[in-house]
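>> Question from a student workshop board

For tomorrow's exercise we were told to take the sequence and the ligand below, predict the bound structure, and bring the output to class. My setup keeps failing. Could a helper post the expected result so I can at least see what it should look like? The ligand is NAP.
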Amino acid sequence: MMQLDGTSFVQGASRGIGLEVVRQLLGMQPEGRVIATCRRPADATELKALTAQYPKRLRVIALEVREEKTIAAAAKAVALETKELQLILNVAGILHGPDFGPEKKLAQIQPEPLRHAFEVNAFGPLLVAKHFHDFLRHGRRSVFASLSARVGSISDNRLGGWYAYRGSKAAQNMFTKNISIELARVAPHAIVVGLHPGTVDTDLSRPFQRNVPAKQLFPASKSVAALLQVIDSLDREDSGKIFDFRGNEIKP
Ligand SMILES: NC(=O)c1ccc[n+]([C@@H]2O[C@H](COP(=O)([O-])OP(=O)(O)OC[C@H]3O[C@@H](n4cnc5c(N)ncnc54)[C@H](OP(=O)(O)O)[C@@H]3O)[C@@H](O)[C@H]2O)c1
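>> Workshop helper replied:
Here is what the output should look like for this input. Compare the format with yours to find the bug.
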């Protein structure tokens, strides 16, 4: 039985994997509450529809992960509703934008996209930990998880390339380990992990799906169902580690 019946906080829920996490958490029994964030709640059509469907269980608040003051403001808004979170899930991530994509070679490195990837993929979960870890200082099991990626593993890197994405996810993984060490002291029931969702059919992977065999490209529904099972089964000894959607550890 899934243990997620308290309040969950999902950061980066406008679309893709984050939106599907919110959907599945709301569909789950026993019932829990969900606080979802996105950059522009007014434009988040799907989240608005879910709020209409679950007015007592879903709250949507604004958070732009590249602006710390919005993270601090979100923490204040959450504190008005609850002192305790059972799950904090950092989903927001970036691989490509309108004018940049993953680099194939050193000549393509540009400081601004590099900075952008690090700000969203690495600094984002770290700043959320800074402003939200007090919500995990309760005496029950809780999980602080960040969507990582297998390509952030240094030992697994055989192809190279994708400097900004690989580097920022590797940095995120180091922050995950660091946060796990600090929280073991101040919030000993909190489990801190990184999660690889598989290759999932979303805007993020769309330009790169051509070479992915059909059976290895998951709909978000399948990936999220698997990730929630992994989250549900984590123990204290798992804190600081990175897991894939099957629950297998990915070595750093
Ligand atoms: N899809 C895959 O195959 C795959 C594989 C491995 C890992 N992952 C990881 O899984 C996570 C989710 O990916 P996805 O496939 O669902 O991606 P997606 O469909 O592209 O969604 C990305 C999400 O991140 C949000 N976001 C981007 N920049 C943000 C910012 N500055 N502040 C706040 N939110 C921001 C987006 O919000 P807006 O709508 O406002 O842009 C959107 O909700 C990412 O961390 C990604 O690295 C995905």
